[in-house]
Amino acid sequence: MKPEDIAALFTAPDGTFLCARWARPVAPVVFGMDDASLAVFRAALTAVFAHARHPLTDTDPEMGANLMVFAVAEWGALADVPDLDRLTGMADLPARLTGQGARHYRLLRFDAGGGIRACLSFHRLEDGAIHPARLGESVAVNAALSWAHPVSPSPDLARLIRAAYDRLLPDAARDASHALRLAARL
Question: Residue 126: its pLDDT value, please?
Fold first, then answer.
């Protein structure tokens, strides 16, 4: 990957650049999966963060869970989530997602230093159309960094995620020149 390709992955439509990674261990919780699927999902999630050399934990001391994954058949099922409006900071999220015909939605929260503090990941699964391992890998890859747009797991992105978690790099960078640092580590 060239620096300009990397910069494009973190540049929003308004031209702002943000490459942020988790600044704390990831404490995932998943809603809407049966136990068998959950075990496969968690193994895939664990593999992605292990490759990045970033720890998973059972509990975040401030928040309990900081990576919340919601898997539903239809967006309307999110209406049953208590205080969803407060959790997301958005009124009527299920109706918005339905109106957009969305299949997934990710919301990131950042700490004072710019690192990822929390991720809410919503997925509409039609008739179990995606294997839990594939979903787990996709959720982990999309939650690992502050991509400007959803990405699909690939060997190139796996290398980029690992490079972004180099301990010598900051948890967050707002200047596109950061792509040069990442490219040098690939």
Answer: 77
